[in-house]
Amino acid sequence: MITELVSWGESLFYLLARLLIILYFVPTINSIFDLQIIGCKEMELNYVVVRSKKRKKTISLQVRANGTAVISAPHGIPIPEIDKFVREKERWLRRKIRENGERQKEIKAKKYVTGETFFFLGEPYTLNIEAAAPGFDKLAFICGQFILASDKVSQGRELFIDWYRKSAQRYIGERVDHFSHVLKLIPRGIKISNARCRWGSCSQDNHLYFSWRLMMAPRSVIDYLVVHELAHTQEKNHRERFWDIVGNTITDYKKQRVWLKDNGHTLDI
């Protein structure tokens, strides 16, 4: 699948390390035909090219949360043409990379101590560290607070991820069921992913994927994303008919998109 790796002045070890990071963030594997790491010499900048089976003509540019520039392009477009596209977008690209770096600095690593705040469905809840009790030995959400067993603090992040993932399977599953009946669009199934910034996706065979990190977002944002991906089961694009489906169901979807753009980087622990 990976047919070409090109990088300027990077060691093989560094290149492979970058590749592992990038593979974690690129779109779902069903949509990828080819992946390349390219070095733009004039800009002293590396970027990733994801060639899609579905994309016919246009080239798009996106900067991931980790600062990686990702180009989505049709299979037949040559690298020099893609390189020209990137150079034309250099000012915007460097600004977005700088903004993402500043946003990442805002995110403080969790320490898993009493009084720390964790978000659930858009609301902040306090964490308390307590000794394990009968029926509770790890992490629980009780009476509007998170309780973490004192002997499990070192596993705090893993336990929270597992809790968010299970909550997402239940809650997002219920929202998918609800909007499936509203829209008369039935997916083949849903799965909860570990994606950091690809909040949702719809595969070619109509399986839906949602990041567990969405459980930190407001309910209205989750509803928008559920409808967005359900709409993709009928429209595999973002043309007018697609947005008609979304807009007729989530009338303020633009507001939810803005929220994600402004706050998506905070949905992490």
Provide structural commentary.
The protein is of the alpha/beta class and 269 residues long. The chain folds into three domains: 4-106, no CATH class; 117-154, no CATH class; 160-266, Zincin-like (2-Layer Sandwich). Helices cover 39% and strands 23% of the residues. The chain is built from seven helices and twelve strands. The strands form three sheets. It has a five-stranded mixed beta sheet with strand order 1-2-3-5-4, with helices on both faces. A four-stranded mixed beta sheet has the order 6-7-9-8, with helices on one face. The two termini are 32 Å apart. The model is unreliable at 1-17 and 20-33 (pLDDT under 50).
Mean pLDDT: 82
Largest sheet: 5 strands, mixed
Radius of gyration: 21 Å
**SSE order in H/E notation?**
EHEEEEHHEEEEHEEEHHH
Total DSSP E strands: 12
Name the beta content range: 15-25%
What class, by secondary structure content?
alpha/beta
Q: Bin the helical content.
A: 25-40%
* Major sheet strand order: 1-2-3-5-4
**Count of individual domains:** 3
Annotated CATH topology of the largest domain: Zincin-like
> Which CATH first-tier class of the largest domain would you pick?
Alpha Beta
Poorly predicted ranges:
1-17, 20-33
Helix and strand arrangement:
Layout: E1 4-5, H1 12-25, E2 32-40, E3 45-52, E4 60-63, E5 69-74, H2 79-88, H3 90-106, E6 117-120, E7 123-130, E8 139-142, E9 145-149, H4 156-183, E10 189-193, E11 200-202, E12 207-211, H5 219-232, H6 240-249, H7 253-263
Parallel strand pairs: 1-2, 3-5, 7-9, 10-12
Antiparallel strand pairs: 2-3, 4-5, 6-7, 8-9, 11-12
